[in-house]
Amino acid sequence: MLSNTGITLVILTTLLSITVIYKSFVDLHIKNNLVNQKILNLVTFQTTFSILSFIVLIVAFVISDFSLVNVYENSHTKKPLFYKISGAWGSHEGSLLLWINILVIFSFLFLVFTKHNNKSYLLYTLIFQNFLILGFLIFLLINSNPFSKIYPIPIEGLGLNPILQDPALAIHPPLLYIGFVGSSIYFSAGIASLISNCRDKFFAKSIKPWVLISWSFQTLGITAGSIWAYYELGWGGFWFWDPVENASLMPWFVITALMHSVIVLEKRNSIYSWVIILCLLTFTISVTGTFLVRSGILNSVHTFANDPSRGLYILIFLSLMIFLALIVFFRYSKKEEYNFLLKSKETLILANNWFMFFFLTAVMIGTLYPIILEVLNNTKISVGPPFYSAVIFPFVIPFLIFMALGPKINWIKNKYKEFLSNFLILIAAIILNFLIYFLLGKYSIISNLIIISSIFLIIHSVKDLLTFFKNKTVSDISRIISHLGFGMLILFIGISHNFTTENDFNLKVGEKKKFSVYQINFNSIQMENEKNYKKIVGEFRLINLKSNFEEILYPEIRIYEQPETLTYEASIKTKLSSDIYLTMSNISRSDYYNIKFQKKPFMIWIWISAILIASGGFIRLIKIKTR
Amino acid sequence: MKKIILIIFFLTFSHLKSDEVTKLHIEIYKNLRCLVCQGQSIADSNSEFAQTVKLVVKDKINEGKSKKEIYEFLISKYGEWIVYQPRFNRGNFLLWFLPYLILIFGAIIIYALIKKRKNNKAN
Amino acid sequence: MKKTFLKLILFALAIFIIGTFYVGLKKTEIYDTKNLIGTNLDNFTLNSLNEDLEINQELIKENQYNLINFWASWCGPCRAEHKYLMNLNRNAKNLKLIGINFKDDKKNANKFLSKFGDPYHYSAADSEGKVSINFGVYGIPESILVDNNLKIIKKFIGPLNQDEYKDIINLTK
Questions:
Q1: Per mean pLDDT, which range of A72-86, A157-171, A178-192, C8-22 is the poorest?
Q2: Is C165 a domain residue?
């Protein structure tokens, strides 16, 4: 029943997409300044049906309708309601439907909110967006239908992969998808802008809110993913430069570049072609990332569902997108005049783009190189954290300095005074760095420089923030907050990277272990039953021998029945100054347990900083709306 | 189910008793891929394979082997796939230099744009 | 001119990346054994499972072909491949089977062998598992075919099956 309803709704959405494309082409030839009301109605229906189909899927999950293969494979009656709902987008099929929904909703919102008098620009955007929608709908219908039926109807479902049963991960895909898929609208708009010759600052104005929305959500999505990795995967890290993580980071670099460049186009009517390239690149890289994650071409901790036939479909779609973008770009791009001054905001925004592109290429080459090498040379290599640290980290230093100085370039009037204040801030940053150095311990030269430059950026941002509160004349509060967040992020990552105390040892119940200033007593283990799993809970007493501080920790080993899986639940004590992180895992055929202990300074500040970065984007959005 | 929980053999595994783990150990563990896991390092994994590799690395360190020798030994057995830090060699040349090449290329473009402007102004 | 050049480069790059992805999709092998094939075994020393005897590379030099099999009593798939090992013992004339008991308890290992039959000409014990790394072992069961020059001819990952059994018979003729 639900299956039929769902499929019908999806097919209706598909038919409406085709109709929208057709009607838009017809409307292109009608000389009129306004988009036909009928098209708007069609898009409204399309959006409604699409959302309804997703609601049907959620309902199927909530009532555990196992006549749907997707529900049977990914849910279970005993699962908590929250995870039943999030199960709707936990699988490949469900997340594809979510993906389509975002494409459709963005298309609708773009049409409604864009106040633009160039009708053909709007219509072309709609046409290309609907081609994208159509492509993914066909993919859904022929390869990954979330409403496929199963007969005979199973009595019980197989359950959702337990490490996916986590609140951060439940919200991770929707957040990331708004970022990923939201970028589709300026892919379509970019192509439309080239074809309809709508190249002025109005184009910049029309895409800016969508760039901001996708950027802010992408930032939050990546953060949620990292939080999940930290709490759930049990290794105590939050970023592993894993190909799948890289796939979410690459579009972020491009959107960040775009977000800065679009300002130049808006204010100075310049670098149009570059903005278009970024618009086209963002979604292309998002789809490439999806291809990498979903096709199984990568060996990764995060590839939960992969299948080569899916990969082939996404690859065909991706190639069509790339060639369309290239052909349209070369066919319609025109020569431009550039107006740059060395000491202008434009130049510094280009510097931002330059760094973003360097980071992007480093991550992209690191991610793709193993695939290329394996195909060409039949050699398998791993590109992991040491590569990225070596290549990227040194360039974070000048990047942070540019971030601090760049936004102020316009106000340089009194050169001497400006120089002096920068010099003082630098001295303060160096002093603070050495304070950390002597209080917490030694670290490498490069870490020193990174920490100095991040403090430099933080002081600059705080200074700007104070000026803002004093006279409210500085308009870019959103920029200040995001830059402050970024400075803090790098600082706290630097500190946590350098001052994590960690140890790895095996203990039996009743034994104790001493290391540095700590002693860990393994007091006991206990079996407990929960609603959808059993767990072994260990009790550990951690004693700081120096300060006589004590803490009891309860790491768990969880045994899920559907599907039968073991997961290791870290015991994490979060404080503002540090996190204590303890995991326990069983060693087969012995009564020893493997214990991993970590003390990570300022962990929670990493999340706070990341959220601060994203909130800058949201503030700017609100300001655009109220203006 | 029970087979996981009930530990069948209560043997004394002397090698499981904890030796001191130094920063060097952890650094090496983190740079080794757990080949039977999905995208985890030896440090992060508790699989049979990871445990064995940890023991071997401990032994090699005790024998006085250097970091490089340990990596070379493991690469000779399992291929370059096992180390996370790709080596500098002919095959990996582009991996290490392409990012910098792009960086220089970008700098040239920006420089050209700014210079152009100066010429325009002079005219 | 400049534009045509740029166009060519970008199209070529796109085709190259898409082509690589396409070929990459078809590759599914996870475990890499080609580093080992053709190389010589390192020297090793293991205790015999039951006798007071040392098992090392010298033993391998005595036989034309050797199949070194890693197994344990706690490993389910080892039971599945066991019948092929028994058949190899019977039918492969030039082949000697060397069983290396991996991270196992001696009592359980012997129980396993007396219950299902002992296919091995020599049995060694790698109680801590450390020697297995010398042989490039990922997990058990795994088997390595070695000739009398200590050269590795082939490596079998996972339980042996009918095809691999025939393969071994042919290779050791």
A1: A157-171
A2: yes
Interface check B77 vs A, CB under 8 A = no
The answer to whether the peptide bond before residue A563 is cis (omega within 30 degrees of 0) is yes
**Model confidence at C35: pLDDT above 80:** no
Residue span of the structural domain in which C117 resides: 45-171
Q: A581-618: buried (b, 16+ CB within 10 Å) or exposed (e) per residue?
A: bbbbbbbebbbbbbbbbbbbbbbebbbbbbebbbbbbb
The interface predicted TM-score of the complex, written ipTM, equals 0.86
CA distances from A527 to A55, A319, A557, B88, B89 (A): 39, 53, 10, 50, 52
User: In DSSP terms, which residues pair with A505 in a beta bridge?
Assistant: A595
How far C167 CA lies from chain A's nearest CA (Å)?
Answer: 24
Q: Do A311 and C25 touch (CB under 8 A)?
A: yes
- Comparing A168 with A209, the larger pLDDT belongs to A209
Q: Is the dihedral of CA A444, A450, A453, A455 positive or negative?
A: negative
Report the CATH number that the domain containing residue C56 is assigned in CATH.
3.40.30.10
Among A120, A325, A99, A106, which residue's Cα sits nearest to residue A210? A106
CB A35 within 8 A of CB A116: no
C60 within some domain = yes
The end-to-end CA distance of chain B, in Å, is 83
The pLDDT value recorded for residue B12 is 42
In terms of Cβ atoms closer than 10 Å to its own Cβ (0-12, 13-18, 19+), residue A470 is: exposed
Q: How is residue A236 annotated by DSSP?
A: S
pLDDT tens for A383-398 read: 999 999 999 999 999 9
pTM given for the model: 0.91
| Contact between residue B85 and residue A386 where contact means Cβ atoms under 8 Å apart | yes
Question: Residue A179 CB: number of other CB atoms within 10 A?
Answer: 27
H/E run at residue A325: helix A308-332
- Asked whether residue A411 carries a pLDDT value surpassing 70, the answer given is no
Number of domains composing chain C: 1
Interface of C with A in 136-165 (CB under 8 A): none
A476 vs A625: CA distance, rounded Å: 15
pLDDT digits (tens, 9 = 90+) for C55-78: 888 888 888 999 999 999 988 889
Parallel/antiparallel/unpaired status of strands C122-126 and C95-102: parallel
- Specify if C122 maps to a domain: yes
C44 touches chain B (CB under 8 A): no
CA distances from A160 to A72, A82, A293, A480, B1 (A): 10, 12, 19, 42, 18
DSSP assignment of A143-205, as one string?
T--TT-B-SSPPSS-----GGG-SHHHHHHHHHHHHHHHHHHHHHHHHHHHHHTT--SHHHHH
Q: Find the Cα–Cα–Cα–Cα dihedral C82, C88, C94, C98, rounded to 10°.
A: 10
Chain pair A-B, CB pairs under 8 angstroms: 156
A127, A25 Cβ separation under 8 angstroms: yes
Identify the bridge partners of residue C70 per DSSP, sorted by sequence position. C100, C142
Q: How far apart are CA A147 and CA A94, in angstroms?
A: 9
> In angstroms, rounded to a whole number, what is the distance separating the alpha carbons of residues A343 and A350?
11
Q: Pseudo-torsion of CA A54, A57, A62, A67, nearest 10°? A: 170
Question: Across the interface, which of B15, B53, B75 has its CB nearest the CB of C133?
Answer: B53
Helix (H, G, I), strand (E, B) or coil at C96: strand
Residue with tokens 């090449």: B101
Instruction: Classify residue C6: in a domain, yes or no.
Output: no
The most distant pair of C-alpha atoms in chain B lies apart, rounded to whole Å, by: 89
Average predicted confidence (pLDDT) for chain B:
80
Q: A383, B8: Cβ pair inside 8 Å?
A: no
Q: Is C2 on the interface with A (CB under 8 A)?
A: no
